[in-house]
Specification:
Largest sheet: 3 strands, antiparallel
Structural class: alpha+beta
CATH topology: Cytochrome-c3 Hydrogenase, chain B
CATH architecture: Orthogonal Bundle
Helix content: 40-55%
Distance between the termini: 40 Å
Number of domains: 1
Radius of gyration: 22 Å
Strand content: 5-15%
Length: 405
């Protein structure tokens, strides 16, 4: 099923009236309240940590009044962490096994940003075909991450079938990465100077077959997930993000676009070959958990279209990397830079400082998950039922190791 056929079949689900919610400004500009647990009126419980691969590597300390959350605190530290300081004690090429783990569902963005920062400091210009291949892998892993996120959204409301479908289709993408790089989870395909190798013979045809499977999945999700009355009643009106919060909270990605703000790094400051591709930023207006999933569904279809454009326009021949000095003795001239990209969760950036030695002087990672899970989630959780906390957390699409870096 191609995109045109999908457009004919798909329809936007009927939206239910937005349920009454608390004042969205409480308690953003107030101090965190205190609760007397000895009064018997309040109960403190912990939700997590678990390990479903989306938000389960962190814990929420919840204070309840009945089944309503009156206070929430995010706790991290349950996963591999300290990546930034580890990189200061490793040569540039030795950092790649580290950066991949900063967000497991989307490791390729970390590979690209680290490589791009090192290349900019070293004055390296990568070959044209390598730019296209990098964009191809970024859109592929974006689809895998967004598909898994939709599965997690369904599972958070008890619709386990959707989660099984999503993980199965994510594996189709991982099959392609295994063929491309030899690895399923941490690919290390993007390296300083370009990429490790060209595409295998027949890779475009096999990718197209996977894209058609995912388009069929989207068609099924529209009927099973987005047209589901229970999912609508539980997710519409949940976790509404006012547009006025976007700048002070540093909200990016779909969480920001759901408020109607069209920010997308691929459009705002194009990198790689995105200025040569035809696409529009997808925005919403209701900004609740339901619409955020709806937008991510549309962004999967947009990434499918971008991959097809890349295959059509990418040079057929040419080098895919430049020759580097001996990477174990590679010294990058002193300097500093900041590079960024649009991941499936929002803007991600790498700030890198070189002092001329063979080791990075400083690497700082700016991921979308920190603000979304550490501050935004804590505010949005207040006033909702404990039964909806999981659905709210997944709708913000956080990646805990990105917080603990």
């Amino acid at each position: 099923m191609d995109r045109q056929q999908g457009d004919k079949i798909r329809k936007q689900p009927d939206l239910m009236p937005v349920r009454e919610t608390r004042d969205p400004w409480y308690p953003v500009w107030t101090e965190r309240p205190s609760f007397d647990l000895s009064s018997g009126k309040y109960l403190k419980i912990w939700q997590g940590p678990q390990h479903p691969g989306i938000t389960g590597n962190m814990a929420l300390e919840l204070t309840l009044e009945g089944d309503i959350v009156v206070d929430a605190k995010t706790h991290v530290g349950y996963l591999h962490r300290g990546f930034e300081k580890l990189m200061e004690r490793r040569k540039y090429i030795q950092c790649f096994p580290i950066v991949c783990r900063i967000c497991v569902p989307e490791p390729d963005y970390n590979e690209y940003l680290f490589a791009a920062a090192a290349e900019e400091l070293a004055g390296i210009e990568i070959p044209e075909k390598a730019r296209w291949l990098r964009a191809l892998t970024l859109e592929m892993i974006r689809i895998a991450s967004l598909v898994m996120g939709l599965g997690g959204q369904g599972g958070s409301f008890g619709l386990g079938t959707v989660g099984q479908w999503a993980i199965a289709h994510r594996d189709y993408i991982l099959d392609l990465f295994e063929e491309l790089s030899g690895h399923r989870i941490y690919h290390m395909y993007i390296i300083p100077g370009g990429v490790r190798g060209d595409l295998p013979d027949g890779f475009e045809d096999r990718t197209e077959a996977v894209l058609k499977k995912i388009e069929k999945l989207i068609y099924d999700l529209e009927k099973v997930l987005f047209d589901n009355a229970v999912i609508k009643s539980r997710s519409q009106g949940l976790g509404v993000i006012p547009a006025s919060w976007v700048e002070p909270f540093g909200i990016t990605g779909t969480n920001a676009r759901g408020t109607g703000i069209a920010n997308d790094v691929r459009k705002d400051t194009p990198y790689l070959i995105y200025d040569q591709l035809d696409f529009n930023v997808i925005t919403g207006g209701r900004s609740d958990a339901y619409e955020r999933s709806l937008l991510r569904k549309e962004e999967i279809l947009m990434s499918i279209d971008l991959i097809r454009q890349i295959f059509k326009r990418m040079p057929k021949d040419g080098p895919v990397r430049v020759k580097l000095p001996n990477v174990l003795h590679w010294r990058i001239p002193p300097g500093e830079t900041y590079v960024r990209a649009e991941t499936g969760r929002g803007e991600m950036g790498y700030y890198m400082v070189s002092d001329g030695s063979g080791y990075p002087r400083r690497v700082h990672v700016r991921g979308a998950s920190y603000t979304h899970a550490m501050s935004l989630l804590e505010h949005l959780a207040v006033g909702i039922s404990i039964a909806d906390v999981g659905g709210l957390a997944v709708s913000l699409q956080t990646c805990p190791p990105e917080i603990e870096r």
